[in-house]
Amino acid sequence: MMRSVSSSSSTRGIAAIVGVGPNLGRSVARKFAHEGYTVAILARDLGRLSRFADEIAREEKAQVYAIRIDCSESQSVREAFEGVLSLGFVEVLVYNAYQPIPWQYGGPSSFTDIRLDSFQKSLTVSSVSALHCAQQVLPGMVERGRGTIIFTGCAASLSGVAGFSELCCGKFALRGLSQCLAKEFHPLGIHVAHVIIDGVIGASSLVLQGISDATKIVCW
């Protein structure tokens, strides 16, 4: 775990963002830092994550922690959240992790070419790990009677697409999990949302700002 220190201290709880890359995850983390949260950002590449943490801490004068997590490994999830929970009460969890999809490597995958281990890993990262992360923070939220969990989805959360079975099955499962948790924990003061971003995210700052604003509407 690496801490990026700023000159100011947070007046709010911890916002844990799982699955932080250069676009959506980093934008959401910056937004929560701007709103006064202590932010924990989690992803596999700790070197890149540490640079993001330094950047956000410096620009927003916030406390930002970089913590490595491999969402395909349950032990990694447990260890990562031991670090997150050591920082304090997790008020917000954003789960934005996913297994890279076929078009990032040249195009859709033929169904007959899908390997079982690859399919299982995609399901694990998209949905099983989301359940595991939520289990780490929900007891504290229930104890305090407040908290927010946001799961990010895409068009594949709603409609199957030829050549994208791995992504669609994982995203369908995540949507179902979101709905189940929302109905179970809403009476206990916990807000659970599934936010669908129906489009490809580019590097434009305007696009990223729009996404973070949409996330703000869901959270507050």
How is the topology of this model organized?
Layout: E1 2-4, E2 14-18, H1 24-34, E3 38-43, H2 46-60, E4 64-68, H3 74-85, E5 90-95, H4 116-144, E6 147-153, H5 165-185, E7 190-196, H6 205-219
Parallel strand pairs: 2-3, 2-5, 3-4, 5-6, 6-7
Antiparallel strand pairs: 1-4
Helix pairs in contact: 1-2, 1-6, 3-4, 4-5
Q: Can you give me a brief rundown of this structure?
A:
The chain has 6 helices and 7 strands, in the order ββαβαβαβαβαβα. Helix 1 (24-34) links the parallel strand 2 and strand 3 (38-43).
| Share of helical residues | 40-55%
Structural class: alpha/beta
Number of helices, where a helix is a run of at least 4 consecutive DSSP H or I residues: 6
Number of strands: 7
The coarse silhouette is globular
Cα-based radius of gyration, to the nearest Å: 17 Å
How far is it from the N-terminal to the C-terminal residue, by CA?
Answer: 29 Å
Largest sheet geometry:
7 strands, mixed
Query: What sequence of helices (H) and strands (E) makes up the elements?
Result: EEHEHEHEHEHEH
Calculate the mean pLDDT score and round it: 83
Strand content: 15-25%
Q: How would you write the strand order of the largest sheet?
A: 1-4-3-2-5-6-7
Task: Name the poorly predicted regions.
Answer: 204-220
